[in-house]
């Protein structure tokens, strides 16, 4: 059942992104920024937490989940470290995912020999 919930929530988020791309003049970069920003805002307001509780990975993997992780990390760090936590918390909470993306991206580039677009 968890897989189905994750698929539904992740699918809804992807459908929203596709509708934004198809129905507006927004570029993928605009949608990326909008999703990360909306995830951060919804996370800070406490609205995204129930979505994560229901959808699990389906809510935390898309770009909105990255924004949510940034805001949650900043809020938790402010509670424990004070104002400096607002600057360090988001970075600390997402560092593992960013580091993994860099490492695995590098490994894939070494294995598959990427070519530049012409």
UniProtKB/TrEMBL annotation:
Statement: the UniProt record of this protein carries the keyword Transmembrane helix: yes
Keywords for the protein's UniProt record, in alphabetical order: Membrane, Transmembrane, Transmembrane helix
Transmembrane recorded as keyword: yes
Recorded superkingdom: Bacteria
Ranges that cross the membrane: 6-22, 29-48, 91-112
InterPro entries: Spore_V_AE, SpoVA
Pfam families per the UniProt record, alphabetical: SpoVAC_SpoVAEB
Name of the protein: Stage V sporulation protein AE
Organism: Maledivibacter halophilus
């Amino acid at each position: 059942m968890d897989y189905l919930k994750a698929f539904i929530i992740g699918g809804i988020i992807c459908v929203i992104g596709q509708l934004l791309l198809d129905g507006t003049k927004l570029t993928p970069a605009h949608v990326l920024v909008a999703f990360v920003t909306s995830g951060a805002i919804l996370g800070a307001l406490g609205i995204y937490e129930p979505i994560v509780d229901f959808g699990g990975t389906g809510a935390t993997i898309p770009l909105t989940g990255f924004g949510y992780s940034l805001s949650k990390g900043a809020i938790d760090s402010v509670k424990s470290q004070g104002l400096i936590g607002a600057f360090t918390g988001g970075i600390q909470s997402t560092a593992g995912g960013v580091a993994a993306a860099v490492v695995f991206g590098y490994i894939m580039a070494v294995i598959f020999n990427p070519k530049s677009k012409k």
